[in-house]
Amino acid sequence: MSAIISISLIPAIAQVPVVHTYNFLNLPISARVTSLGGNLISTKDNDLNAAIVNPALLSDTMNNNVALSYINYFSDINYGYAAFAKKLKNKQNVSAGIQYLNYGNFIRADETGAISGSFTANEMSLNLSYSRPMIDSNITVGGTLKTIYSGLDSYTSLGSAVDLGIIYNRPKQNFAIAAVIKNAGYQWKPYLKDNREKLPFEMQIGFSKRPKHVPFRYSITYQHLEKWDLTAHDPNNASVTIDPLTGAPVGGSKVTLFGDKLMRHIVLGGEFSLTKNFFLRVGYNYQRRKELKVPEKRGMTGFSFGFGFKIYKFNISYGRAVYSLSGASNNFSISFDMNSFYSKK
């Protein structure tokens, strides 16, 4: 637990360029998003679980929909999300949701190892989203207001953030392009007095397309528009790029280094529609692979996969993301339309 608090509170040192607070906001919530590489902002369909990534994905087809997600992360860490959507007049839509993360229970001990009790750590965000068409029905804009609480042992923090999104969707052409600004906000109450931290602000663009007569949709998301170089650097020589895991210098030609920096922004995803109610999904996150791979045995680090299906009135999805040789995360999502349970007269 001391490591968690240190990451949250201590200023950046050595290879880490910037430390942000409330990084749990960037964890993939939807099982579908998890299986497609960890990010998906440009696919607009009836999936309330995906609308947390881009509020512009919230639509009137989600009226009275409920979405639930649970993620079995690493060690005893678990997190999840629950949301409810409602349609308003003039194709305006709102949703309310809660995102939580529980680090589990920890033994309290001093530097000598003497045990003095136990403590917990958790973080939470209450989200209110809104969307509406703009100019024409193909363009939708949306926003999410987040009220954030973090409690790490005796340290507590409060903050707020806003996500803004827009999507241009052409259903007949099976094409969409989107842009998102995430976590623009402020830490109102820092963990330590006079030690206010930045939120994980980010800008993204995304594109998705389903080719004609092919039961397959691919998506490409470009993350971190606000920063080009996502590699770490030697603090004693800013011109030397280093591997953030091993600390070894990264060499190669200018073309190779440019390609490496470009690919660190890219998340790739593919979704196969085997039937109307069954989907297979696969994704690849280059940045995750570069940061967490073991050079001697790379394995499937950075890859993700999953599936989704509809049974009775429920849409169920599973996603698994391989972070390293030490393990992977498992994500389960379910959504349903409450209208479908109403008796018809």
What is the string of SSEs from the N terminus onward? HHEEEEEEEEEEEHEEHEEE
Q: Share of helix among residues? A: under 10%
Radius of gyration: 21 Å
Strands, count: 16
What overall geometry do the principal axes of the alpha carbons give? globular
Beta-strand percent range = over 45%
Query: Which strand order do you get reading across the main beta sheet?
Result: 1-2-3-4-5-6-7-8-9-12-13-14-15-16
- Mean pLDDT equals 86
Question: What oligomerization state is this entry in?
Answer: single chain
Note the gap between the termini.
Answer: 56 Å
Which structural class matches the secondary elements? mainly beta
- Ranges with pLDDT <50 over ≥5 residues? 1-17
Individual helix count? 4
Report on the biggest sheet.
14 strands, antiparallel, barrel
Quick structural gist:
The chain contains four helices and 16 strands. It has 345 residues and is mainly β.
Features:
mainly beta; single chain; 14-stranded antiparallel β-barrel; 4 helices; globular; two-stranded antiparallel sheet; disordered N terminus; 345 residues
Describe the 3D structure.
The protein has helices at residues 2-9, 31-35, 254-263, 286-292, and strands at 65-72, 78-87, 93-109, 115-134, 136-152, 155-170, 175-189, 202-209, 216-222, 232-234, 237-242, 266-275, 278-285, 303-311, 314-324, 327-337. By secondary structure, it is mainly beta. It has a domain at 2-230. The strands form 2 sheets. The protein has a 14-stranded antiparallel β-barrel with strand order 1-2-3-4-5-6-7-8-9-12-13-14-15-16. It has a two-stranded antiparallel sheet with strand order 10-11. Strand 8 and strand 9 form a beta hairpin.
